[in-house]
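Q: I have 178 residues here and want to know how they pack in 3D. Can you give me a structure?
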Amino acid sequence: MVNYKVLSKEISYALRHVPEEYGLTLDLEGWVAVEKLLSALQKNEKWKKLKISDIITMIQLSDKKRHEIKDDMIRALYGHSTKTKISKEVAEPPEFLYHGTAKKFMKSINNIGLIPKDRQYVHMSVNEYTAIDVGKRRDDEPVIIRIRAKEAYDDGILFYIGHDEIWLADSIPVMYIN
């Protein structure tokens, strides 16, 4: 039986961070053929019996919507740290977006705004609940930042859709942060 949570983490690692370690080359939008990913995973004894149907089931069962498959291609929707920046289509965001973070990062955020650090984009949520969950990864009582996204967009800051609950930006200047 396939552990879909473990599979999701493995595929995220391959598609978000080190595709070259799996012998994969992502296109400019982060896509790679599902068959190539499957072959790469099957080289590991743990995934020897893995099938495409297992990857599809993993995506369908995931509550975090990290991956998508389209026309026999797969990609991670967000979270990339690869050297080659994954291009995203610019989209108009909702009025407000939220970012959960540890208290220890607030001094830096108040000085320079939100920057992607080791990722390609700043990640924001459409609701506070998701931002709280994200922030709790590094702090039991995270700070929730409200971003005036629509105002920032109107002023020329580019936003991109990660998926229906996650938005991305290259950076968010301090003036749009509450």
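Q: Anything worth noting?
A: The longest strand covers residues 97-101. Residues 49 and 108 are 47 Å apart (CA to CA).
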